[in-house]
Amino acid sequence: DIKPAVVEDAHVEPLPEMLAGAASPVYRIGAAGVFDEPLTVQLPIAPDQDPDDLDIYYYSEDPDQAGWYRGERVIGWLVPDSVRIVEEDGERYLEFRVNHSGVAQLGRDISPRLGAMGVSATGGAGQWLGLFALLLIALLVAARVHVGPARLRR
After folding, report:
1. Burial class of residue 31 in the structure, from the number of CB atoms within 10 Å of its CB (0-12 exposed, 13-18 middle, 19+ buried)
2. Which residues have C-beta within 8 Å of that of residue 131, sequence separation ≥ 6?
3. Is residue 78 helix, strand or coil?
4. Residue 144's pLDDT is what?
5. Exposed, middle or buried, 15 (CB in 10 Å: 0-12/13-18/19+)?
6. Which has more pLDDT, 135 or 9?
7. Where are the extended beta strands (E) located within 45-146?
8. Does the N-terminal or the C-terminal CB of the chain have fewer CB atoms within 10 Å?
């Protein structure tokens, strides 16, 4: 199995905190282009990191779409179902397969939790609607308590 060159890239801005907590340096993977066959990448996991909390993020350098995206949402980059945790020589790695070069970083979820519902900057419409409905109900209850019950005048 051929492994592409993976080097740290200090020229790319790391993950913004609003999206995820940076859990690794930014890495440039392989020579630019599409690979003849998917290549395996291993990014080191810090000893204090829980691998189950990590996601792979991809940085698009296309001027029209520049920014960080979850790796599984980048069509054609990450090979489906290829992500796994491996241990070699006492070190843990997040291993995955890619179809073309790119810039990647490991990130950990920083979504605030409201009960069992996670809400993040990338949350779906249903999550946001639920959050706004919850806020509206809280405001209505607070207004009712502040004003008190309605009274009839005689």
Report:
1. exposed
2. 114, 119, 123
3. strand
4. 65
5. buried
6. 9
7. 54-60, 67-70, 84-88, 91-108, 113-114, 117-118
8. C
The residue type at 106? L
Q: What share of the chain is helix, strand, coil (3-state, %, to 5)?
A: 20, 40, 40
User: What's the rounded Cα separation, in Å, for the pair 115 and 118?
Assistant: 8
User: Could you give the angle at the alpha carbon of 32 between the alpha carbons of 82 and 15, nearest 5°?
Assistant: 65
Task: Specify the pTM.
Answer: 0.69
By residue count, the chain amounts to 154
Q: What is the SS3 assignment for 128?
A: helix
Which tops the pLDDT comparison, 126 or 11? 11
Element (H, E) at 132: helix 125-147
pLDDT digit string, tens, across residues 42-67: 999 999 999 999 999 999 999 999 99
Widest pairwise Cα distance in the chain: 88
